[in-house]
Amino acid sequence: MNEDGLRVLVMGTGAIGGTVAGHLSEVGADVTAVTTNQRIFDSVRAGGFRLVEDGETRRVRGRISLGVPGDSQYDVVLLATQPPQVEEAARSAMAALADGGVMVCFQNGLCEQRIAALVGSERVVGAIVAWGASMPEPGHYDRTAAGGFVIGRISGPPDGAAMAVGRLLEAVAPVTFTTNLAGARWSKLALNAAVSSIGTLGGDRLGALIRVRRYRRLALEIFTEAVAVAQSEGVILEKVAGTLDLGWVALTEAERRQKAGSPNLAAKHALLLAVGLRYRRLRSSMLAAIERGREPAVDFLNGEIASRGRERNIATPVNARIVDGIWALARKERSPSRQLLDELYKETRQLA
In sequence order, which residues have a C-beta less than 8 Å from that of residue 229 and are 6 or more positions away? Predict the structure, then answer.
């Protein structure tokens, strides 16, 4: 892939996609953002991408389109939709993918395999997003947590195309490369399955919820089930952001029976408090999707853990209950609240 003059298509202008498109436009990249949301389109066309970092706002002019332009070919297609829309986005952009071009998965979960089934694994690059953003209003993008990208291929070491994607994305956030994308993805899946589901059910930002011990315990149970499933598939888990070792964080059988008092268990709670501090402003994207009447990504997070657990005959009762609870929110049968998390905690004490 020739890095000079890469043509870039960003599919999706939510919090992540809009932030990426704005930063790439700011450094002069040949980038076009695609949205299906008329309000976002109108806002960006009129006033550019509004980027907020450290309390400062700047406006960046850039190209935005309602749908994939039919007269151009793109070397890099950045898939920045929510997981439920990623395959539709990839199909929409397939005809615009240049020879030798690649599609890049930003989604949480294990979406690379889904896109590889459409375009071939050699045309898929994984980009794990380890930073946070929100879109408080159309076209307004607020960076809420620092971090970078972890980039790799479905199998094997990063090649020239993956390296070119990494150099492109350096304009947005720091980039590291991995030779173990599956291990990095599973670790991030476990983290997001805990953070996003607790934030969705509780209806609050992570910083407020993670201070409650019983909610941290739910997060530990989610991690534990995810680690068991990943290890059953032969995945070697990577540390999240180079520090969070989920293999260590996962509860032992003795710890699952303990109420409190174990120094090791206390250390795990302390680590979760530190994670919560880093992402304290983070508001669940699943909760935002539900509020907008869109399909939540729970089947790609907790649902992925639960379904693969069933295939491997590994019990995942907490993740399974979370899937049911979040779909109840999506159907408007319940409303997000701490009471909902309290009910989940009590219900799963006999199951975990």
Answer: 305, 308, 309, 312, 314, 316
Query: What does the block give as tokens for 242?
Result: 């180079």
Report the SS3 class of residue 75. Answer: strand
The separation between CA 131 and the C-alpha centre of its own chain, rounded to angstroms, equals 9
Task: Judge whether 149 and 176 are in contact, CB under 8 Å.
Answer: yes
Which pTM value belongs to this model?
A: 0.86
Please tell me the distance from the alpha carbon of residue 85 to that of residue 102, in angstroms, as a whole number: 18
Label residue 101 left, alpha or beta by phi (over 0 means left) and psi (-120 to 50 means alpha): beta
Measured between its terminal Cα atoms, the distance across the chain in Å is 49
- The residue ranges of DSSP E strands in 130-190, in sequence order, are 132-137, 140-145, 149-152, 175-177
| pLDDT tens-digit readout, 4-51 | 689 999 999 999 999 999 999 999 999 999 999 999 999 999 999 999
Separation CA 197–CA 215 (nearest Å): 11
Locate tokens 């151009």: which residue? 72
Residue among 35, 58, 55 at smallest CA distance from 47: 58
How far apart, in whole angstroms, are the C-alpha atoms of residue 64 and residue 10?
9
User: Got the DSSP string for 75-128?
Assistant: EEEEE-S-GGGHHHHHHHHGGGEEEEEEEEE--SSS-HHHHHHHH-GGGEEEEE
